[in-house]
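Protein chain data
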Amino acid sequence: MSASIAAWLAALLIVGGALLGLVGAIGVLRLPDCYSRMHSASKAGALGAALILAGVAAATSGEAALEAVFALAVVLATAPLAAHAVSRVAHRVGVLPRVGPLGDALAAEHGGAGDPCPGARQKSDDASCAADSAQPGGSGRPVGEA
């Protein structure tokens, strides 16, 4: 009876992890900018891998539990750190995030380098940047910038 429950638990954990991985992959395809995509890939990928590793530990009746725990520790330690490091590098080289009402916290740290409309706070007639930012799919960059 308990072997049957362990098998079902393992199957549910593995399928749940695979579905979270699928959600992360869909997020990479559908989200608007590299920062959102990176967040989707790292968070959903790490949680999906955790569930799959827990399913592997349950499926092997604990024989591979130690290996799964070590693999889980590596995944949970490295995925968010790698995503954070890549995000900071992307911001430093000028890949601007889509900002909402809270703005871009790193822009002030880098002297306005991440400001989607440089100089717009001094000049209120920067229509190209305001028009692009107001568009539903607008990137927040002035028109003409890649």
About this structure: The CA atoms of residues 20 and 121 lie 42 Å apart.
